[in-house]
Amino acid sequence: GQNIDQPTEMTATEGAIVQINCTYQTSGFNGLFWYQQHAGEAPTFLSYNVLDGLEEKGRFSSFLSRSKGYSYLLLKELQMKDSASYLCAVGDSNYQLIWGAGTKLIIKP
Amino acid sequence: DAGVTQSPTHLIKTRGQQVTLRCSPKSGHDTVSWYQQALGQGPQFIFQYYEEEERQRGNFPDRFSGHQFPNYSSELNVNALLLGDSALYLCASSWTESSYEQYFGPGTRLTVT
User: Fold this and answer.
1) Cβ A42–B90 below 8 Å, yes or no?
2) Do the chains contact at B98 and A101, CB–CB below 8 Å?
3) How far is the C-alpha of A20 from the C-alpha of A9, rounded, in Å?
4) By three-state DSSP, how is residue B11 classified?
5) How many helices (H) and strands (E) does chain B have?
6) Hey, is the C-beta of A91 within 8 angstroms of any chain B C-beta?
7) CB atoms A42 and B107 under 8 Å
């Protein structure tokens, strides 16, 4: 079957760093995506990893290990506006995205 | 450059009724995918339309049907609504059916009472 796991909720402090983990088991793999979704809004694209390693984009970085079926999203210098859900999704062999349930990130002052 | 648009924004229906949701893709995109997102869950793939045909379908009953028009816009129809159909319905468009790069619309919040 297809399974994507990520923590339900995490809490962090403004200005700090937080790492959101994602593990996956899917039939076929064509990349791993991270999306941000504010409450009541559509998901917006953050990052895409298809090869092992770290991709850095400003305050956000994403890591992938294909052999371990593992990824993480690293958020640095947290801001209150980073409070949102973070969704991990895997591209399957049919060019469809298989989604995790999302991690709700709560930022405290 | 207009992004993906959806209408209506919110909708309230009664069990057993039928509903039609609409989506216009981002300019230059020809593929539309529909997702259902229940509260606190990730999006679940319903189906994808390309060249006016349903190309792929997720694990949803036949009550869920769709259409794509020559201008690439799309409709999602749900018949015999159930309480469990209450969700945010997201439309995403992409360049082709073989692209992972999807742009999402703001969604339609459907409430079934």
Assistant:
1) yes
2) no
3) 9
4) strand
5) 0, 11
6) yes
7) yes
